[in-house]
Amino acid sequence: PDLPSRIEHGHPFTPYDRTTFYTPGEVGYTDYKTWEQLQSDKHDTAADTSDVPAP
Length: 55
Known about the structure:
Number of helices: 2
Oligomer: single chain
Order of helices and strands: HH
Shape: globular
Radius of gyration: 15 Å
Number of strands: 0
């Protein structure tokens, strides 16, 4: 969904999932996350310390 923006800003493309080729529905066609969503997920994951045991 954000291909023009990725090209403009030099961001990498999302790897494809070959198992979704030629299937009905949006999976593999329009369900990929945007660059901003991926970066937000990375930030949220890095900030999540709920798995870290207390000292």
